[in-house]
Amino acid sequence: MIEIVHGHSLFHTMKKSALNQHKIILLNTRFSIADLNFLDHFKVILSKEIYSEDNEYTFLDEILEIKKSKDIRIWCSKQEADSYLLLMYLCYLLQYDDYHLHVVFSDDCRKDWNSPSILKEEELLEIEKYTHLLTSSEIKEYAQSFEQVKNTKGLMWIMEDGQLKAVDYHYFDSILLEMLAEMKTVKTSALVAKFMRSHVMSDLVITYFILHLIEDGKIKVVTQEENVRLFDCLIEINN
Known about the structure:
Layout: E1 2-5, H1 8-15, E2 23-26, E3 34-35, E4 43-46, E5 56-58, H2 60-66, E6 71-76, H3 81-94, E7 100-105, H4 106-109, H5 121-128, E8 132-133, H6 136-150, E9 156-160, E10 163-167, H7 173-183, E11 186-187, H8 188-196, H9 203-215, E12 219-223, E13 234-237
Parallel strand pairs: 1-2, 1-6, 6-7
Antiparallel strand pairs: 3-4, 4-5, 7-8, 9-10, 11-13, 12-13
């Protein structure tokens, strides 16, 4: 059995757990915000606006390693776009080969466990009990859905009510502004943390949303010391 995970936090937790009896492979593909035109070369291109220095991610070596095992288990969530897209991609990639694809959805165990990445070792062992062997029809359905994702032009994919949805980077503007209006003057990191309680998304991407709102004049930076990153600056609604 090979364990496939998305996110460094989950990878490191599993490496230190009883689950480390299997080979664990990290595929940090970030399909939700990536240009998928280079998938045939096992590469994704990320937005330079968000990932200015490291915006290319290649994963051929990981795929070759995965293909060495006939039993593959993907850890994901129906509320987390990146891990859900990773599941779909692996079904798309391996659909015509003789593999046993298993999936563990963290939120099948508890709805508030919206990502395996937030779980401790004992909680991962708990959700392991919900491992499901995908049928050939389920694999085909996930593969077809990923084909549609590849052919859909959108800036970003999110999970909404258990379904993938293509949106632009301004989709969450009103939610962020409402949260900040309630919080008054806070550090950017506090707004990001509040948003992440109800949305499974990278803090870097959420900070990018906030930067857009600052550039649009809807949020203002109250204090910004030299060499202090936006994440640590005080911000408030620009009335």
